Protein backbone atom coordinates (compact mmCIF):
# COMPACT_ATOMS: atom_id res chain seq x y z
CA UNK A 1 0.00 0.00 0.00
CA UNK A 2 1.26 3.48 -0.79
CA UNK A 3 1.48 6.24 1.80
CA UNK A 4 -1.16 8.90 1.24
CA UNK A 5 -1.59 12.32 2.73
CA UNK A 6 -4.70 13.75 4.22
CA UNK A 7 -5.31 17.39 4.94
CA UNK A 8 -7.21 18.18 8.12
CA UNK A 9 -9.16 21.27 7.27
CA UNK A 10 -9.73 22.15 10.92
CA UNK A 11 -6.02 22.45 11.71
CA UNK A 12 -4.44 22.94 8.29
CA UNK A 13 -1.95 20.23 9.31
CA UNK A 14 -0.74 17.48 6.97
CA UNK A 15 -0.70 13.97 8.42
CA UNK A 16 1.01 10.99 6.83
CA UNK A 17 -1.19 7.90 7.21
CA UNK A 18 -0.17 4.29 6.56
CA UNK A 19 -3.09 3.24 4.33
CA UNK A 20 -6.25 4.40 2.60
CA UNK A 21 -8.44 2.10 4.75
CA UNK A 22 -7.11 3.63 7.96
CA UNK A 23 -7.50 7.11 6.51
CA UNK A 24 -11.22 6.54 6.05
CA UNK A 25 -11.90 5.49 9.66
CA UNK A 26 -13.02 7.91 12.34
CA UNK A 27 -10.00 6.90 14.49
CA UNK A 28 -7.69 8.61 12.02
CA UNK A 29 -9.10 12.03 12.83
CA UNK A 30 -6.87 13.97 15.26
CA UNK A 31 -8.24 17.07 16.94
CA UNK A 32 -6.32 20.30 16.27
CA UNK A 33 -5.87 20.86 20.02
CA UNK A 34 -3.67 17.77 20.17
CA UNK A 35 -1.05 19.49 18.01
CA UNK A 36 -1.02 22.49 20.37
CA UNK A 37 -0.62 20.26 23.42
CA UNK A 38 2.26 18.29 21.87
CA UNK A 39 3.97 21.49 20.75
CA UNK A 40 3.67 23.04 24.22
CA UNK A 41 5.04 19.90 25.88
CA UNK A 42 7.98 19.73 23.49
CA UNK A 43 8.71 23.42 24.01
CA UNK A 44 8.67 23.04 27.80
CA UNK A 45 11.17 20.17 27.73
CA UNK A 46 13.38 22.01 25.22
CA UNK A 47 13.56 24.96 27.64
CA UNK A 48 14.48 22.72 30.58
CA UNK A 49 17.20 21.02 28.53
CA UNK A 50 18.62 24.38 27.46
CA UNK A 51 18.61 25.70 31.02
CA UNK A 52 20.20 22.53 32.33
CA UNK A 53 22.96 22.24 29.72
CA UNK A 54 25.98 21.59 31.84
CA UNK A 55 29.45 22.99 31.59
CA UNK A 56 32.01 20.25 30.83
CA UNK A 57 34.74 19.67 33.38
CA UNK A 58 38.15 20.98 32.41
CA UNK A 59 40.58 18.17 31.44
CA UNK A 60 42.70 18.68 34.57
CA UNK A 61 39.78 18.46 37.03
CA UNK A 62 39.17 15.10 38.70
CA UNK A 63 35.68 14.24 40.01
CA UNK A 64 34.50 11.04 41.64
CA UNK A 65 31.16 10.45 43.38
CA UNK A 66 31.27 7.79 46.11
CA UNK A 67 28.41 6.11 47.97
CA UNK A 68 27.73 4.57 51.37
CA UNK A 69 24.80 2.18 51.07
CA UNK A 70 23.97 2.09 54.80
CA UNK A 71 23.43 5.82 55.31
CA UNK A 72 22.66 6.65 51.66
CA UNK A 73 25.48 9.19 51.79
CA UNK A 74 27.38 10.60 48.83
CA UNK A 75 31.02 11.57 49.30
CA UNK A 76 32.96 13.46 46.64
CA UNK A 77 36.63 13.23 45.74
CA UNK A 78 37.88 16.25 43.79
CA UNK A 79 41.41 16.72 42.55
CA UNK A 80 43.90 18.58 40.41
CA UNK A 81 45.26 15.96 38.00
CA UNK A 82 48.50 17.87 37.45
CA UNK A 83 49.46 18.86 41.00
CA UNK A 84 47.88 15.68 42.48
CA UNK A 85 46.29 17.68 45.31
CA UNK A 86 42.81 16.45 46.23
CA UNK A 87 40.00 17.05 48.71
CA UNK A 88 37.08 14.91 49.87
CA UNK A 89 33.63 16.15 50.87
CA UNK A 90 31.46 14.38 53.48
CA UNK A 91 33.46 11.15 53.99
CA UNK A 92 31.82 8.30 55.94
CA UNK A 93 33.61 6.41 58.74
CA UNK A 94 32.81 2.93 57.40
CA UNK A 95 34.20 3.90 53.97
CA UNK A 96 37.40 5.60 55.15
CA UNK A 97 39.62 2.66 54.16
CA UNK A 98 38.01 2.48 50.74
CA UNK A 99 38.51 6.21 50.22
CA UNK A 100 42.10 6.21 51.44
CA UNK A 101 42.94 3.30 49.14
CA UNK A 102 41.39 5.09 46.16
CA UNK A 103 43.36 8.25 46.91
CA UNK A 104 46.59 6.26 47.06
CA UNK A 105 45.83 4.26 43.92
CA UNK A 106 45.20 7.44 41.96
CA UNK A 107 48.41 9.00 43.20
CA UNK A 108 46.70 11.92 44.93
CA UNK A 109 47.69 13.70 48.12
CA UNK A 110 44.55 14.33 50.17
CA UNK A 111 45.00 17.83 51.56
CA UNK A 112 41.54 18.49 53.05
CA UNK A 113 38.50 16.53 54.23
CA UNK A 114 35.49 18.83 54.40
CA UNK A 115 32.10 18.24 56.00
CA UNK A 116 29.13 20.24 54.77
CA UNK A 117 27.74 20.20 58.34
CA UNK A 118 27.76 18.19 61.57
CA UNK A 119 25.89 15.09 60.39
CA UNK A 120 23.26 13.28 62.44
CA UNK A 121 22.80 10.17 60.26
CA UNK A 122 26.36 8.87 60.06
CA UNK A 123 29.76 9.34 61.64
CA UNK A 124 32.14 11.29 59.46
CA UNK A 125 35.22 9.53 58.13
CA UNK A 126 37.35 12.65 58.65
CA UNK A 127 39.03 11.51 61.88
CA UNK A 128 39.90 8.07 60.54
CA UNK A 129 41.23 9.52 57.29
CA UNK A 130 43.58 11.71 59.35
CA UNK A 131 45.09 8.49 60.69
CA UNK A 132 45.15 6.69 57.37
CA UNK A 133 46.54 9.66 55.42
CA UNK A 134 48.76 11.68 57.78
CA UNK A 135 48.97 15.38 56.99
CA UNK A 136 45.37 15.71 55.86
CA UNK A 137 43.49 18.69 57.36
CA UNK A 138 39.91 18.43 58.64
CA UNK A 139 37.57 21.30 57.69
CA UNK A 140 34.09 22.37 58.77
CA UNK A 141 32.04 25.52 59.27
CA UNK A 142 32.94 27.74 62.20
CA UNK A 143 29.23 27.76 63.14
CA UNK A 144 28.96 23.94 63.21
CA UNK A 145 29.99 23.41 66.82
CA UNK A 146 32.34 20.58 65.76
CA UNK A 147 36.08 20.31 66.24
CA UNK A 148 38.35 20.58 63.21
CA UNK A 149 41.82 21.68 62.12
CA UNK A 150 40.38 24.48 60.00
CA UNK A 151 37.14 26.46 60.31
CA UNK A 152 35.37 28.16 57.42
CA UNK A 153 33.37 31.35 57.29
CA UNK A 154 30.90 32.43 54.61
CA UNK A 155 32.56 32.95 51.20
CA UNK A 156 35.94 31.64 52.37
CA UNK A 157 38.05 29.86 49.74
CA UNK A 158 39.71 26.44 49.97
CA UNK A 159 42.39 25.75 47.35
CA UNK A 160 43.53 22.39 46.00
CA UNK A 161 46.06 22.58 43.22
CA UNK A 162 44.96 25.35 40.88
CA UNK A 163 41.30 24.96 41.81
CA UNK A 164 39.22 26.95 44.26
CA UNK A 165 36.22 25.87 46.28
CA UNK A 166 34.05 28.57 47.83
CA UNK A 167 32.19 27.89 51.08
CA UNK A 168 28.71 29.45 51.13
CA UNK A 169 26.88 29.53 54.45
CA UNK A 170 23.45 27.91 53.90
CA UNK A 171 21.98 27.27 57.38
CA UNK A 172 18.52 25.93 58.13
CA UNK A 173 19.05 22.19 58.45
CA UNK A 174 21.75 23.03 61.02
CA UNK A 175 23.38 26.35 61.92
CA UNK A 176 26.65 25.23 60.38
CA UNK A 177 25.45 23.99 56.99
CA UNK A 178 27.57 25.04 54.04
CA UNK A 179 27.29 24.62 50.30
CA UNK A 180 30.64 24.18 48.56
CA UNK A 181 30.91 25.73 45.08
CA UNK A 182 33.55 25.17 42.40
CA UNK A 183 32.51 27.95 40.05
CA UNK A 184 34.92 27.16 37.20
CA UNK A 185 33.46 23.66 36.88
CA UNK A 186 29.82 24.72 37.33
CA UNK A 187 29.16 22.51 40.36
CA UNK A 188 27.94 22.93 43.94
CA UNK A 189 27.82 20.43 46.80
CA UNK A 190 24.71 21.21 48.82
CA UNK A 191 25.00 18.82 51.77
CA UNK A 192 21.58 18.36 53.39
CA UNK A 193 20.38 21.90 52.69
CA UNK A 194 19.06 21.02 49.25
CA UNK A 195 18.41 17.42 48.21
CA UNK A 196 17.19 16.16 44.85
CA UNK A 197 13.49 17.15 44.79
CA UNK A 198 13.64 17.70 48.54
CA UNK A 199 15.62 19.24 51.39
CA UNK A 200 17.01 18.40 54.80
CA UNK A 201 14.63 18.16 57.73
CA UNK A 202 14.36 21.06 60.17
CA UNK A 203 12.89 19.45 63.29
CA UNK A 204 16.12 18.91 65.27
CA UNK A 205 19.71 20.16 65.70
CA UNK A 206 19.02 23.94 65.33
CA UNK A 207 16.75 23.33 62.34
CA UNK A 208 14.69 26.28 61.12
CA UNK A 209 12.44 26.08 58.06
CA UNK A 210 12.39 29.79 57.25
CA UNK A 211 16.15 29.98 57.45
CA UNK A 212 16.56 26.96 55.17
CA UNK A 213 14.11 28.40 52.63
CA UNK A 214 16.06 31.68 52.51
CA UNK A 215 19.38 29.85 52.22
CA UNK A 216 18.16 27.94 49.17
CA UNK A 217 16.43 30.85 47.45
CA UNK A 218 19.01 33.53 48.23
CA UNK A 219 22.18 31.45 47.83
CA UNK A 220 21.75 28.19 45.88
CA UNK A 221 18.95 29.29 43.53
CA UNK A 222 20.92 32.42 42.58
CA UNK A 223 23.71 30.30 41.11
CA UNK A 224 23.62 29.95 37.30
CA UNK A 225 20.75 27.68 36.27
CA UNK A 226 23.02 25.22 34.49
CA UNK A 227 25.07 24.52 37.65
CA UNK A 228 25.06 20.85 38.60
CA UNK A 229 24.08 20.20 42.22
CA UNK A 230 25.36 17.25 44.24
CA UNK A 231 23.69 16.54 47.62
CA UNK A 232 24.97 14.64 50.64
CA UNK A 233 22.22 12.02 50.34
CA UNK A 234 19.64 10.51 48.04
CA UNK A 235 17.17 7.76 48.89
CA UNK A 236 15.74 7.09 45.42
CA UNK A 237 18.82 6.39 43.33
CA UNK A 238 19.26 9.89 41.89
CA UNK A 239 22.85 11.07 41.62
CA UNK A 240 22.66 14.75 40.76
CA UNK A 241 20.35 17.60 39.84
CA UNK A 242 20.68 21.21 38.68
CA UNK A 243 19.62 24.68 39.76
CA UNK A 244 17.13 24.85 36.88
CA UNK A 245 15.54 21.51 37.77
CA UNK A 246 15.08 22.27 41.45
CA UNK A 247 13.69 25.75 40.77
CA UNK A 248 11.06 24.14 38.56
CA UNK A 249 10.35 20.75 40.12
CA UNK A 250 11.28 20.72 43.83
CA UNK A 251 7.90 19.94 45.45
CA UNK A 252 8.70 21.86 48.64
CA UNK A 253 10.89 24.76 47.61
CA UNK A 254 8.77 25.87 44.65
CA UNK A 255 6.08 26.87 47.18
CA UNK A 256 6.00 30.25 48.93
CA UNK A 257 7.75 30.45 52.27
CA UNK A 258 4.62 30.06 54.43
CA UNK A 259 3.50 26.96 52.53
CA UNK A 260 7.03 25.56 52.84
CA UNK A 261 7.06 26.09 56.61
CA UNK A 262 3.71 24.31 56.89
CA UNK A 263 4.96 21.36 54.82
CA UNK A 264 8.06 21.01 56.98
CA UNK A 265 6.03 21.21 60.18
CA UNK A 266 3.86 18.29 59.11
CA UNK A 267 6.39 15.76 57.78
CA UNK A 268 6.02 13.58 60.91
CA UNK A 269 9.39 11.92 60.35
CA UNK A 270 10.75 9.28 62.75
CA UNK A 271 13.51 10.10 65.22
CA UNK A 272 16.89 9.79 63.43
CA UNK A 273 18.35 6.37 64.15
CA UNK A 274 21.98 7.46 64.38
CA UNK A 275 21.66 10.91 65.92
CA UNK A 276 22.52 9.94 69.50
CA UNK A 277 25.75 8.31 68.35
CA UNK A 278 26.62 10.39 65.30
CA UNK A 279 26.31 13.91 66.72
CA UNK A 280 28.64 13.34 69.73
CA UNK A 281 31.15 11.62 67.43
CA UNK A 282 30.95 14.31 64.79
CA UNK A 283 31.31 17.04 67.40
CA UNK A 284 34.78 15.55 67.87
CA UNK A 285 35.14 15.53 64.04
CA UNK A 286 35.03 11.76 63.90
CA UNK A 287 37.74 11.14 66.49
CA UNK A 288 35.30 9.25 68.69
CA UNK A 289 35.04 5.45 68.51
CA UNK A 290 37.28 5.04 65.46
CA UNK A 291 37.95 1.37 64.64
CA UNK A 292 41.50 0.19 65.25
CA UNK A 293 43.47 -0.28 62.05
CA UNK A 294 44.27 -3.90 61.35
Automatic annotation (TrEMBL):
SMART domains: Lactamase_B. GO terms for molecular function: metal ion binding; sulfur dioxygenase activity. It is an enzyme of class 1 (oxidoreductase). GO terms for biological process: glutathione metabolic process; hydrogen sulfide metabolic process; RNA 3'-end processing. The keyword Transit peptide applies. InterPro entries: Metallo-B-lactamas (IPR001279), Mito_Persulfide_Diox (IPR051682), POD-like_MBL-fold (IPR044528), RibonucZ/Hydroxyglut_hydro (IPR036866). It comes from the Eukaryota. Residues 72-233 form the Metallo-beta-lactamase domain. It is found in: Mitochondrion. Its EC number is 1.13.11.18. Its cofactor is Fe(2+). It catalyses: S-sulfanylglutathione + O2 + H2O = sulfite + glutathione + 2 H(+). GO terms for cellular component: mitochondrion. Keywords: Acetylation, Dioxygenase, Iron, Metal-binding, Mitochondrion, Oxidoreductase, Transit peptide. Its main location: mitochondrion. PANTHER family: PERSULFIDE DIOXYGENASE ETHE1 (PTHR43084), PERSULFIDE DIOXYGENASE ETHE1, MITOCHONDRIAL (PTHR43084:SF1). Belongs to the metallo-beta-lactamase superfamily. Glyoxalase II family. Homodimer. Monomer. Interacts with TST. May interact with RELA. This is Persulfide dioxygenase ETHE1, mitochondrial.
Amino acid sequence: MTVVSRILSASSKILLLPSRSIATTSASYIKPSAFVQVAQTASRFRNVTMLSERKPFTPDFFFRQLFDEKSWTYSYLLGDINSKEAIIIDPVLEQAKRDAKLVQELGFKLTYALNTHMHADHITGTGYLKQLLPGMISVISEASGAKADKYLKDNEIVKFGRFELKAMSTPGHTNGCMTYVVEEQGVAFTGDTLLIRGCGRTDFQEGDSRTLYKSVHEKIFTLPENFRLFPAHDYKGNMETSVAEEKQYNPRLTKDIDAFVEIMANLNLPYPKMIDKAVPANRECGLYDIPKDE
